[in-house]
Give the backbone structure.
Amino acid sequence: MATYGDVARLAGRPGAARAVGNILREAPEPRLPYHRVIAAAGALGGFGRSPHLKRSLLAAEGHTFRGRRLRNFSTRRWPE
């Protein structure tokens, strides 16, 4: 699990979280785990046109939620 900001920072572009979201929204490879990139502080964020699918995919992996936030986000976040 990583945030859009984490991915931006790892790519050498801190502050480009929105750009990461735009890139992932348009990404053509459906088998990559884009659903594991979430918004700051564990919020689900978007997932193209189907945020419910994102939640379902994460739930299928054993993640639980409190409202629109991932529970225990700090222990599941990568990189720590």
